[in-house]
């Protein structure tokens, strides 16, 4: 699978709802082509209970990438499903590493510092997923004003946009996606660890104007630093909300190649700091 | 000449110091190869009086002398003024594609970029000003840096103008990239805009430079510099006059050679007295950032 939609209610107010959103996302990660690693103690979607309090993990799964680089630059990710600030708020912890000990401990691990958070939303929304064996990105509820969680991971790129085994480019929400401070990004260097969390998206957009000149419409890449900036990722780009139709797909030329993107629209409006007021949003790779 | 260092007494206590300030800049701009055109009513350095706050005492009109001037002419009006404080001098820059012979422009003029520090230091302090550019190259950068006497951002200022660039960094006749500071070189003081003959662009109140909020700006033997992008809707190719860097990585005021647009160019690191550009991303990106000024 490269793209998919799923109807998901991001709410943990009952056991059934917690199981539904957790297993729903899990199923899509597996559908990317990520390999489920049968570590001991992994979550049982048939019996797991909803979190009783906030900031609690209820169980985990371990996946690994299955792309060509996995042989030389392996990527394992432990995913913990649990609660955000309140018991009913969904939260997902991502722990990346290069191996697992078979009991759910990913090494060297990044100490739970990647954690998606959101406020519960008792409505079923359409979530959008895109991924392959070596990348993944999803956004829940972009058509609404609630229920949004965004997560993106991909391998680092070379100057031509090809994947490299150096590390991972990660970006995600920790709350309201319209608030630029509610986004986090980091470069995870394989075998070394996180190189620091940035509490904004690394996208430079103009603070004035529309992003359009004549027939040209701008998109803005997302940059992660490793000291100097690394070549930008392919999963997410910024754009101005007025310039593209929300939830339409567009073919863009990036790194001299055509790629398809989904415009996530004004639900994320304001996600990039410094951009023209509330007009910044994201394109999500959708192919 | 492509670079110059000027000195004058910064505190505009009277007419004599104001005349010295204005004449010093005028001579420097002429020496850089800009040509003054005949306009009625231009400033007389022998008789001009120090004006009131926020008032221009007089102006000069210059033209570029680069090869593009024949097909894409640029006129540059420089006003010698006083800032919001009576003892603080100011330079105002306005651009157009033709002049009316009396200090005005024919056609659409640019937004006037008023550049001044917010305050002065002492009555007798002599400032050091760095100028870089050339009339024949179609660019000018002015960096008012009060030297070691102060690290206060409010006592410095910056201005630069250059032609737009193609993807290889060569000048184009499309318009001008204009960057300056207003009252302070802290993040809130920077202004940038694009001037196109079809209309002045919207002024941005932060620099179009993005610096990481984590890390040092260096990795191994690599030290990053960060380009400045200005928008006409879509971003134009970045400025050559101004780059960002993390000031701890490069010694202040020691020229360095930077490869940009695939070519070597010399830059002057402005150091900690210009720290805290109006850059994007997190608070870590703002602290420690500083400008590199083209110096060749």
Gist of the model:
The complex is a heterodimer of chains A (287) and B (296). With 287 residues, chain A is mainly beta. Chain A has a domain at 3-201.
Outline type of chain B: globular
Tally of separate helices of chain B: 2
Largest sheet of chain A: 7 strands, antiparallel
DSSP summary: helix tally of chain A: 1
Estimated structural class of chain B? mainly beta
Q: Supply the helix-strand structural class of chain A.
A: mainly beta
What does this structure look like?
The complex is a heterodimer of chains A (287) and B (296). With 287 residues, chain A is mostly beta strands. Chain A has a domain at 3-201. Helices cover 6% and strands 42% of the residues of chain A. Chain A has one helix spanning 15-32, and strands at residues 3-9, 35-37, 57-64, 76-83, 90-97, 99-100, 106-107, 114-117, 124-132, 135-140, 149-157, 163-173, 183-189, 193-198, 212-213, 216-217, 220-221, 236-240, 249-254, 257-263, 280-285. Chain A has a 7-stranded antiparallel beta sheet, covered by helices on one side. The longest helix of chain A is centred in the N-terminal third of the chain and has 18 residues, at 15-32. The model of chain A has no long low-confidence stretch (mean pLDDT 94). Chain B has one domain (3-217). The radius of gyration of chain B is 18 Å and the shape is globular. In chain B, strands 1, 2, 3, 4, 5, 6, 7, 8, 9, 10, 11 and 12 form a 12-stranded mixed beta sheet that branches. In chain B, strands 15-16-19-18-17 form a 5-stranded antiparallel beta sheet, with no helix packed on it. The model of chain B is unreliable at 146-150 (pLDDT under 50). In chain B, a hairpin with a 4-residue loop joins strand 7 (126-134) and strand 8. Helices cover 7% and strands 39% of the residues of chain B. Chain B has 2 helices and 19 strands. Chain B is mainly beta and 296 residues long. The A-B interface holds A 186, 195-200, 202-204, 206-214, 216-218, 223, 225-229, 273-274 and B 201-206, 208-210, 212-220, 222-224, 229, 231-235, 280-282, 284.
């Amino acid at each position: 699978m490269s793209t998919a939609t799923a109807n998901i209610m991001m709410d943990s107010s009952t056991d059934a709802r917690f199981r539904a959103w957790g297993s729903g996302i899990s199923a899509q990660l597996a559908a990317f082509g990520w390999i489920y690693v049968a570590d001991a103690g992994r979550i049982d979607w048939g019996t797991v209970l909803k979190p009783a309090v906030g900031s609690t993990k209820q169980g985990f799964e371990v996946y690994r990438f299955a792309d060509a680089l996995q042989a030389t630059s392996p990527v394992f990710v432990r995913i913990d499903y649990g609660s955000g600030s309140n018991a009913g708020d969904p939260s997902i912890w991502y722990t990346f590493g290069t191996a697992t000990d078979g009991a759910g401990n990913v090494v060297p691990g990044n100490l739970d510092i990647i954690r998606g958070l959101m406020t519960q939303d008792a409505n079923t929304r359409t979530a959008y997923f895109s991924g392959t064996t070596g990348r993944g990105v999803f956004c829940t509820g972009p058509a609404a004003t609630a229920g949004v969680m965004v997560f993106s991971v991909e391998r680092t790129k070379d100057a031509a946009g090809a994947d490299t085994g150096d590390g991972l480019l990660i970006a995600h929400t920790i709350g309201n996606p319209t608030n630029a401070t509610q986004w986090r990004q980091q470069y995870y260097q394989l075998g070394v660890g996180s190189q620091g969390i940035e509490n904004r998206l690394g996208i430079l957009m103009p603070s004035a104007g529309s992003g359009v000149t004549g027939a040209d419409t701008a998109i803005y890449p997302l940059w992660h630093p490793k000291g100097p900036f690394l070549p930008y990722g392919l999963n997410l780009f910024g754009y101005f909300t007025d310039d593209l139709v929300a939830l339409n797909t567009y073919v863009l030329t990036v790194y001299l190649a055509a790629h398809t993107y989904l415009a996530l629209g004004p639900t994320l409006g304001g996600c990039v700091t410094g951009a023209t007021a509330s007009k910044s949003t994201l394109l999500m790779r959708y192919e | 000449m492509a670079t110059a260092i000027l000195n004058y007494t910064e505190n505009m206590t009277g007419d004599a110091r104001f005349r010295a300030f204005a004449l010093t800049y005028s001579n420097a701009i002429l020496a850089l190869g800009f040509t003054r055109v005949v306009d009625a009513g231009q400033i007389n350095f022998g008789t001009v009086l120090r004006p009131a706050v926020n008032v221009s005492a007089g102006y000069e009109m210059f033209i570029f002398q680069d090869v593009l001037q024949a097909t894409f002419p640029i006129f540059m009006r420089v006003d010698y003024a006083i800032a919001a404080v009576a003892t603080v001098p100011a330079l105002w820059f306005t651009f157009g594609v033709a002049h009316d012979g009396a200090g005005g422009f024919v056609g659409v003029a640019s937004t006037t970029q008023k550049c001044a520090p917010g305050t002065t230091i002492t009555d007798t302090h002599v400032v050091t000003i760095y100028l870089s550019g050339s009339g024949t190259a179609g660019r000018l950068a002015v960096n008012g840096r009060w030297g070691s006497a102060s690290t206060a951002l409010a006592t410095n200022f910056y201005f630069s103008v250059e032609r737009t660039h193609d993807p290889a960094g060569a000048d184009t006749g499309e318009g001008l990239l204009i960057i300056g500071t207003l009252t302070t070189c802290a993040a809130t003081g920077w202004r940038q805009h694009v001037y196109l003959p079809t209309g002045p662009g919207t002024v941005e109140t932060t620099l179009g430079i993005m610096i990481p909020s984590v890390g040092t700006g260096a990795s191994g033997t690599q030290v990053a510099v960060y380009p400045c992008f200005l928008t006409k809707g879509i971003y134009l190719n970045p400025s050559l006059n101004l780059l960002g860097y993390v000031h701890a990585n490069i010694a202040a005021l020691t020229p360095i050679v930077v490869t940009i647009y695939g070519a070597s160019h010399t830059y002057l690191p402005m150091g900690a007295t210009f720290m805290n550009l109006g850059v994007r991303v997190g608070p870590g990106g703002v602290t420690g950032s500083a400008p590199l000024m083209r110096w060749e």
